[in-house]
Amino acid sequence: MTTRSPEAIAILGGTGDQGLGLALRFARAGRPVVIGSRKEDRASAAADEVRKAVAGADVVGLENAEATRRAEIVILSVPFEHTAPTVKALKDVLVAGQIVVSMGVPLATAIGDGAVRTLGVWQGSCAELVDSMVPDGVSVVSAFQNVASHRLQDLAHDVECDVIVSGAKVPRERVMELCRLIPGMRAIDGGPLANARFVEGFTALLIGLNVRYQVPSGMGFRLTHLPDAR
Predict the structure, then answer these.
(1) Are the CB atoms for 195 and 203 separated by under 8 Å?
(2) Where are the domains of the chain?
(3) CATH architecture observed for domain 5-212
(4) β-strands 33-37, 59-63: how paired?
(5) Cα–Cα distances in angstroms (integers) from residue 21 to residues 27, 123, 194, in the given order
(6) 9 pLDDT above the threshold of 90
(7) What is the predicted pLDDT for the residue at 1?
(8) Which of these, 196, 219, 190, 193, lies nearest to 206 by C-alpha position?
């Protein structure tokens, strides 16, 4: 029987740039990391990359369903067009008490258009789409959409970016604690999950700014005059 660890963080899509960056950061912070992929060999290869970069990293690569079984917090780091199929495939695996973190953005690249535009989502946002699909008792939190993968993977420097976290209060606070494991990342209480629809749109804006200002490593943003944020 698979044992679910309260400390482990599962990252589905951890073979991609942003998911791999989060895996590196959480492993460096000393948390057990489970990288998930549709193909176990790809997940294992990504886990090897993390071990090479972070001495003593507690990381394993598994197929998505098995990765989901190993952790209480499951981060979805997959392109928008793969979000619904991924969640649908996990409906019999997710159980009450788990937290699913949606970091997807409905970029228009999903239909062959540009990354500087977003698509309309009936539920209001990618995060709310995920929320409509998970089993009862599974919480969905929105976070990490606006952190550049280059910044995450550059372990020599702090990330220096705010992350707006939205969802129900208790799971939201747990994900905010994850943000604080990453040097230079500040967690911002974004309130209810419905606010994800505003945060997701920032990604398209940042992509356009990166192009216009020629910042290939990616911009982030900081909110000012927030005395209680850290």
Answers:
(1) no
(2) 5-212
(3) 3-Layer(aba) Sandwich (3.40)
(4) parallel
(5) 10, 28, 26
(6) yes
(7) 58
(8) 219
Check whether 230 has a pLDDT greater than 60.
no
Task: Give the three-state DSSP class for 105.
Answer: coil
Of 116-125, 161-170, 212-221, where does mean pLDDT reach its minimum? 116-125
Contact 138, 100 (CB under 8 A): yes
Using CA atoms, how far apart are residues 187 and 189, in angstroms rounded to an integer? Answer: 7
Residue pair 230/182 in contact by the 8 Å Cβ criterion: no
Cβ neighbours of residue 22 under 8 Å, at least 6 residues apart?
A: 11, 14, 75, 77, 144, 152
pLDDT-based confidence at residue 108 (cuts at 50, 70, 90): confident
Q: Looking at this protein, which amino acid is placed at residue 119?
A: L
Tell me the whole-structure pTM to 2 decimals: 0.95
